[in-house]
Amino acid sequence: MKIHKSIVIALILSVFLSCSNIFAADEYSLEDLYRIALERSEKIKISEEDLYISERGRDKAASALLPKLSAFGSYTKYTEDKRSSTGAIIQPDGSISWGLRLDQSFYLNGREITAFKISKEYIEKSRYDLHAVKEVYIFSVASAYYDVLRAKKAVEIAKANFDRLTKHRDAAAIRLKVGEVTKTDLLRAEAELSGAHAELVKAENNLKLTRAVLARVVGISGDYDVKETAGIREDAADNLDSLKQRAFAERAEMKAMELQKRIAEEQVGYSKGAYWPTLSVEGVYARREDNPSVVTVNKESIYGGIKLNFPFFEGGLRRAEVAEAEAKKRQSELIYDDLKKTIGIEVENAYLDFQTQKGVLKSFDDQVTFASDNYNSVSKQYQFGLANSIDVIDANTLLLTAERQLTDARYNYQLSVLRLQRATGALLRTIASQQSVENRSREDKGRTN
């Protein structure tokens, strides 16, 4: 009786330990990976720092619109004090002077205001750049996620193929013993089984690699697994022209480039502003104290001044700056046109890929059904001597190929939906909308419970 109890306890402990190992590994959905990636991505943090730098650039531009307040002071020590023939002090032994100065300088055409406006547009452009970086990164996370799912399915297919060929090898061995087939059938079955084992090893190693790549992209560590989420909802089927127009209007890259064009135009005006004179206004409070005191020296004064500076020749600097700004303006227009063409091709490629994957998915699904029925029929026929080993191997190869094609088509279809959303600039907005719906659903369930 004690032996039975110890066995039961050992079984319970082994089950508990195995379950604890299972539960130790974290399992992530695609939405979980999105959230973690947005929090931990170095690329996104770099782009966020670019936005912060742009905001500080606005502060620098605003400082030019405000007057500068400064304090000054000096101490002068003379070798000796000097006096006139009447005894009046001409040069004191020491002198201290100090005061406050208020200065404001600006171009008459409002060049500083133009610089402040440009700095605000740079902030908006940095926000669009950050949005674009997030979309590119999110799509790379989705690609790595579906690579892992594809690799997991490849391992399942390879295991199933290995099991089928093992059964076929065993059946060939039995038929060889009773003299129904030659040894060639068994050798062929053994060779196919060895190849299936090699494919299984490659599939398992590829799964490890894809998991490592996903962990690097997202920023997770330790043992983990991914769970397949529900199928991605595709948008309403728009025609290609409407998708392109949507991309031109919604893509963050296009919006950022439009701002860059506007900034380049304003930079030309900013550079031409250097031809205008500068007006400087100053107000000063100054005080001086001598030791010994000099009666004839004004000890305290308050004064203001206005200066107008108009440089006529500076070696061609202003002309070169204007020419440079105009070249950058032309360059930004060319970049904008090139980007628009590139996005148009990207949308067309994503749209055609989406239509292709959507069209072939049903065909590959039917192909797997037919290939599976065909393999079952041929394998039974082989057991009763109505088919040979080559028939079984051909049927298995057909089934293996169909299963792999269906797996690729299924995940390529899911990825093509995301690629089309990315090409039209709707990916990040769609993900945010889905997550907000899910959060509201969880909150409603929490209130109900």
Written description of the protein model:
By secondary structure, the chain is α+β, with helices and mostly antiparallel strands. 70% of the residues lie in helices and 13% in strands. It is built from 10 helices and 8 strands. It has helices at residues 2-24, 30-40, 42-63, 111-177, 183-218, 240-250, 252-272, 317-383, 389-423, 427-448; strands spanning 26-28, 68-77, 82-83, 89-91, 94-107, 224-226, 278-291, 300-309. The strands form 3 sheets. A 4-stranded antiparallel beta sheet has the order 2-5-7-8, with no helix packed on it. A two-stranded parallel ribbon has the order 1-6. A two-stranded antiparallel ribbon has the order 3-4. A hairpin with a 5-residue loop joins strand 3 and strand 4. Helix 3 runs antiparallel to helix 4. The longest helix has 67 residues, at 111-177. The chain is elongated, with a radius of gyration of 39 Å. The two termini are 47 Å apart. The model is unreliable at 15-23 (pLDDT under 50).
Name the overall outline.
Answer: elongated
Total helical segments? 10
Strand content: 5-15%
Structural class: alpha+beta
Q: Could you give the distance between the termini?
A: 47 Å
Main beta-sheet annotation: 4 strands, antiparallel
Catalogue the unreliable spans.
Answer: 15-23
Can you write the helix and strand succession as a string? HEHHEEEEHHEHHEEHHH
Number of strands: 8
Q: What integer value in Å does the Rg equal?
A: 39 Å
Work out the helicity level: over 70%
The residue-averaged pLDDT reads 86
Main β-sheet, spatial strand arrangement: 2-5-7-8
